[in-house]
Design brief:
The protein is α+β, with helices and mostly antiparallel strands and about 150 residues long. It has helices spanning about 1-30, 50-65, 100-105, 115-120, 125-135, and strands spanning about 40-45, 75-80, 90-95, 135-140, 140-145. The relative contact order is 0.20.
């Protein structure tokens, strides 16, 4: 009987610790998700006469080096459809740390970028965007905000 009682007390103590840890983890998770990311997707099409191999070499080198690390709460990369309906389709994905970051740089829906973006962009990023425009035409964007923000 003592053995059963000891196991029961140990189990209840463990559940109490686990419950406290779960509550602490949940609180930390809520803090971390208070600023959820926004994903901006823009379809891009290669300009006439542009070789896909040359474009992808630019993306893997210059574009990646300019945008792979977050700068002022923004990161960007180019993806290519691997399977499904949009297999072979290119898109630019811009990840903003939050709606606040997105709104700082793009304050008006369908509007131009703010002066802050032009001021905060690095010379490498400006150069990469200028070169990107020689390879592709950029389509209309859609922004996707994580649910919960």
């Amino acid at each position: 009987m003592r053995y059963v009682l000891a196991i029961t007390i140990s189990t209840l103590a463990l559940l109490g610790v686990t419950s406290a840890q779960t509550a602490a983890s949940k609180e930390k998770a809520e803090e971390a998700t208070s600023a959820l990311p926004v994903y901006s997707l823009r379809p891009i099409e290669l300009r006439e006469g542009i070789d896909a191999t040359n474009f992808e070499a630019f993306v893997k080198d210059e574009f990646k080096n300019a945008f792979s690390k977050p700068t002022h709460g923004i990161r960007a990369f180019i993806v290519k459809g691997d399977r499904g309906k949009e297999k072979g389709v290119y898109k630019i994905v811009v990840v903003f740390d939050s709606k606040e970051v997105r709104n700082k740089y793009f304050p008006v829906e369908d509007g131009d970028a703010s002066e802050s973006l032009q001021k905060d962009a690095t010379p490498m990023q400006i150069s990469a965007l200028q070169k990107l425009s020689t390879f592709v035409n950029v389509g209309e964007y859609s922004d996707f905000a994580a649910i919960g923000d």
